[in-house]
């Protein structure tokens, strides 16, 4: 499942938009890897990149929410936890060789990301912008 970042995904904070673009890019790279029949080692390094990058991105958002005492930060973090748990559970199984990387899994990640950007992240736009963060 390919995902193309578009303006309507903007959350009003440039560094988080950049983070989302990178996440889309990594998911697309995994998808391309499936189509091209890339080997496990190549996919593993992209997956590792996705794990590291998404963890860093979520924790950057969470730090900023904490710093400004964003009112919805607890429920926001719970959504990140869902993604983190799912991704880590999958990667663990993938590394053990008990789960293949499938388009279905990527579909889940893309669906989560699109909904998260357009609904949950979008909610912090006005809040952060009002604090001068954009
Ligand atoms: Fe978020």
Write the layout of secondary structure elements.
Layout: H1 14-35, H2 40-67, H3 73-96, H4 103-121, H5 124-130
Bound molecules: fe (ii) ion (FE2).
What is the CATH superfamily label? Hemerythrin-like
Compute the average pLDDT: 96
| Strand composition percent | under 5%
- How far from one another are the termini? 30 Å
Describe the sheet with the most strands.
Answer: none
Number of helices: 5
The proportion of residues forming helix, as a percent range, comes to over 70%
Tell me the count of domains: 1
Based on Cα principal axes, name the global outline. Answer: elongated
What's the gyration radius in Å? 15 Å
Strands, total number: 0
Q: Which CATH C-level class is it?
A: Mainly Alpha
Per CATH, the architecture is Up-down Bundle
Order of helices and strands: HHHHH
Bound molecules: fe (ii) ion
Under CATH, the topology is which? Four Helix Bundle (Hemerythrin (Met), subunit A)
Report the structural category: mainly alpha
Low-confidence stretches: none
């Amino acid at each position: 499942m390919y995902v193309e970042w578009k303006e309507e995904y903007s959350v009003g904070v440039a560094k988080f938009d950049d983070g989302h673009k990178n996440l889309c890019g990594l998911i697309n790279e995994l998808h391309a890897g499936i189509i091209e029949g890339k080997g496990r080692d190549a996919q593993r390094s992209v997956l590792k990149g996705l794990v590291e990058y998404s963890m860093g991105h979520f924790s950057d958002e969470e730090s900023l929410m904490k710093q400004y005492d964003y009112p919805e930060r607890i429920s926001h973090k719970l959504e990140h936890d869902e993604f983190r748990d799912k991704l880590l559970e999958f990667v663990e199984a993938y590394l053990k060789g008990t789960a293949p990387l499938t388009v279905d899994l990527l579909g889940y990640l893309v669906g989560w990301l699109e909904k998260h950007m357009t609904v949950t992240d979008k909610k912090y736009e006005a809040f952060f912008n009002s604090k001068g963060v954009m």
